[in-house]
Structure formats: structure tokens, C-alpha cells
Amino acid sequence: MSRPSEDVSRLSREGVRSILEKEPRFDVVVIGGGIHGTAVARLAAANRYRTLLLERDDYASATSSRSSKMAHGGLRYLELFDFLQVFEGIRARENLFTMAPHLVKPREFLIPVPKGQTLFRWKLSLGLTLYDLFVRKRERRHRWIPAMKERIPVFEDRPLQGAFIYCDGLMNDTRLVLENILSARRQGALCLNYGRVDGVKKGQNGKVRVQWTDRIGGDGCEVEARIVINCAGPWVAEAGGAAAAPLSEKIRYSQGTHLLFRRPWDGPALFLPMKAKTRYYFVWPHFAGTLVGTTEREIQAPVSQDPFPGKDEVAEILHRLERDLPGSGLNRENLHYAFAGVRTLPLRGTKKGTERLSRRHVWTDAEGVVSLIGGKFTTAAWTAGEGLKRAAALADLPAPCAAEAERLPGAVGFQEAVEAFLRKGERRGIPGSLLSRTVARLGSRVRSLLDRPEAMEVIGDRILRGEVETAIREDQAERLEDLMRRRMDLEYTDGCGLDLLPAIAKILGRAKPNLDLAEEVRKYRDRIHNLWKLIGDRT
Question: pTM, whole model, 2 decimals?
Fold first, then answer.
């Protein structure tokens, strides 16, 4: 059933559906379009397995777009003596710098050490020295800044011994998911968002039948697979059918909230300790201002596919900032956006709180379904490789080869494409900041905007028409929220892009004539206004 890879990335949704009707049999069916599901699909397609990925909503619509936007080794896991997790995290982070340099960039973080906390300083020094053992490049190793030698402006009114500086990465989490999907499709995988899996059952012939519904077309469908890989995140127990249902007893859930302030952060990114062991929070620059997070609240189960932060979580972060960074301007008056995400943590016979549970993932299998519990965003490629090897052995497929460090589409031919794009944009008088943001999202894929003059049309001083069209044509944006929130990053900006809704809805309407645009606009506006009411902005 395996076949050589064929680029299907230009196929319309109708084209993909047509292939599914004619050829409904697959080597691998992946459930879930977050970072782990898309990494599995990319790796499976690279190994020439006939692959289908189904995502109930939009790609990265849940946890994978609500991360801390950090590609990190997991410094705090050293306190739990989870050295393997740290080693894997740093190796995976270094791979991401190579795979997607336009989406993942090194960043220095500062950890302040107050006067009188010598034990804390030496514990940190030991931990960072161990962290450095896994870091290849010398310039990414930590260093100590004595407070008397070098001024630390953000803490100039605080009595400090000094501060440690170490290196991790900042990333565009949603774009990494989308480029994994695009890479998988270019290698032959069929991928559909808004494809809800309704049933999974192993037949007498040993194959697994997957029943699913096209939420765009409205009709039900069935495909057959040699193996199903269930990467549905917080919904892993319900998405994998009866074989995965018992997993609900092996999972705990944690909700984390982040706040986004309109005030730019000009200082170093901060890694700030809290009173509880292994608890820290971060303050770091974001293109739309300053991002701060995260909280860690255990919840019984995800109650919504699009959770809002709790008012108490928002208040908790604001209280931390008032205590730790008074005068920074990171307060409710400058708060313009917030988001919450649910993480899935595997139980290992412990009653520890979620903040003390290991982030190491667990793969399980039953009845032709291989399911993932937990997993870190940074190490998704590594995790996907493990899961695919297990699935291939169960399905008697050829053993897969690793492809975790292969460059993603936006990183291929980066320098040449970006230079040509910037030259054309400058000749047209387009602001450099707008051009830079487009490059930060698309990388070398900006070359697709060069051949069409209309593609360089500026919409509202913040977006290019061609990028919206590319998001619909190549990145499978089906709804208005897909564009505003996950393709254009407009929802993060001050005002959440409400002023651009008519122009973007018009472009979407031309491509999707059957879409109820008025309803799409209403739903987006209502959600944003409800969020503003919760955080106390514009009310």
C-alpha cells in the first residue's frame, strides 16, 4: 500500500475528498492536528507511508497555539532530576534552530538573584552548569553578571547579588504546526482540518476502520488504516474509540494562562522564580508587546475546546508583576489580550501536583490504535519518531528513518527569497516592519508573493493581500478565525484586528463563496468582546 511521495499541497479540499473517495485505504491515519500529530504526519509521509491526518477543528486550534512560545530545554526539570528530559529538550531546541530559523530564534534569559539568597544562587549555578553540558555552542552557555559590575536596569531599585544569563529559544508555535502540515502534504500526505473522527474500530481483517465527518461538507465518511496514531492531546481518550477510552484514568490536566500587554518589552527576557519548588514564570518580548506567563492550575478535564483564562488566573499574574516588577507598566491598564491552554500529563502512580509531574510523554497501544499522552512542544519531532517506530512495528510496515532535522518549507532557500522580497517591498514603499513580520511568518515562502503585483497590496498597514490568499490557498484556512488567529497573528495585536475584518472577510468570501461571512464576523467579534470583558480591557 506504500507509495512514492506526491505533492498534494496544491489540492483543494474538494480534490482531497475526491482522492479519499477513490482510495480510502491508508498505511497510517493520524488523529489530531497539533504539533505532535503534524510531526507524525510529516515523518510518516517522508517515509513514504500512505498517510491521512484528520483534525476536528483547525490545525493548532487548541494547546499547540497556546504554548509559552518558547523552544526550551526545560531548565526547571533539573530540580526534578529529569536529566533525560533536559537532554532531549536541548537537542530538540538546537534542531529547531536549524529546521525553522525564521520561526525559532535563540534568546537570552535573565534570572535575578536577590541579596541574601546565596543558596539559591549556588543551586542555580549548578543547574545551569548541567544545562550547559548539553549545549554545543559556547555562546549559548550561561554567565553570571555581578550587580556591582553591570547595571541591570529592570531591577535597578532591587537589592541583587547579580543575575544569571542563559540561552533558550522563542518561537511561533502555530506556524511550526502549519509548516509541518505543509511539509507532510508536499510529501504526499492527505491532511484535512475540520474532519471530526466519530469512531475507530479494528476489523476482523486486522485493519482499523475510521469513521469521520467532514464538518465543512457535512457528510460522513469512512477510511481504513493499517494503524491509527492518536495525537488528540487533551481529547486523546475520546478520539481513539473504545481502545483509547481507558486512558482517561491515566491522565491529569493542567491549564496555563498567558497575558499579553501592549507595552513593548525592551529589556532582557526574564525567568522569575516563585515560592513553590519548580515554579517559575516568564516575561519576554512579543511582536505585539510583552508576553507573561504561565499559571499552572489543575483541572478535572477540558470543558471547552476554546478555553478562556479564569479571572483568578489573570489576577494571579497581575499580582506577581506588581510584586516583582513594579513600575514596569505591565498592569491591567496595558493588558490587551490573554489566552489559556490545557496540557495533558501522564500519571505514573504518583499523587504529586501537576507542577511536579514529569512532562515526559507516554505512548500506549491497543486494538490497532497507538495513543500519545502528554509530550512537550519542543521535543515533538523526537516524540513523533518514537511513536511512528512503535506503530510501524505493530502494523508490519518498513521501519521508519528519522527526518526530524530536515528543514521546513519556509527555511528552504531562505536568504535568497527573503532578500528579493525585501527589495521588492522597499521599491513599493512598504514599511520595513510589515515586511519583517511577513518574513517572520512565511520565511522563504514569501517568494510566492513576488510574481503577482496584487499580492503586495497592503491592507490596513499591517498585512499583505498575498499572505491572506496564500493562507487560504496553501495553508487550508477555512474560517475567518483561522486567518485572524492562526495564519495572520492579527488577534494578538492591540485591537485584535477588528478594524481589518471587512477587508479580510471580503478576500475569504471570494475564495469560499458558500461561507456565511456575516456569521463569521459576528462570532469573531463576540469572542473578542467577551475576552476583553474578562480581562477588563475596553469595557
Answer: 0.94
> How far is 369 from 287, CA to CA, in rounded Å?
40
Question: Cβ(208)–Cβ(224) under 8 Å?
Answer: yes
For residue 484, give the DSSP letter. I
Tell me the residue type at 53. L
Q: Are 463 and 478 in contact (CB under 8 A)?
A: no
Contacts of 207 by beta carbon, 8 Å cutoff, 6+ apart = 25, 224, 225, 226, 368
Nearest Cα to Cα of residue 178 among 338, 285, 53: 53
The span from the CA of 259 to the CA of 280, in Å, is: 15
Nearest to 366 by CA among 200, 197, 199: 200
Q: Which of 373, 368, 371, 372 is nearest to 397 (CA)?
A: 368
DSSP structure class, residue 485: I
175-178 own/partner pairs: CB under 8 Å, 24+ apart = 175/100, 175/103, 175/410, 175/441, 176/35, 176/96, 176/100, 176/103, 176/104, 176/408, 177/33, 177/34, 177/35, 177/38, 177/59, 177/60, 177/64, 177/65, 178/59, 178/60, 178/475, 178/486, 178/487
The single residue listed with the C-alpha cell 537570552 is: 108
Q: Mind listing the pLDDT tens digit for each residue in 159-188?
A: 888 899 999 999 999 999 999 999 999 999
> Is residue 174 within 8 Å of residue 60, measured between CB atoms?
yes
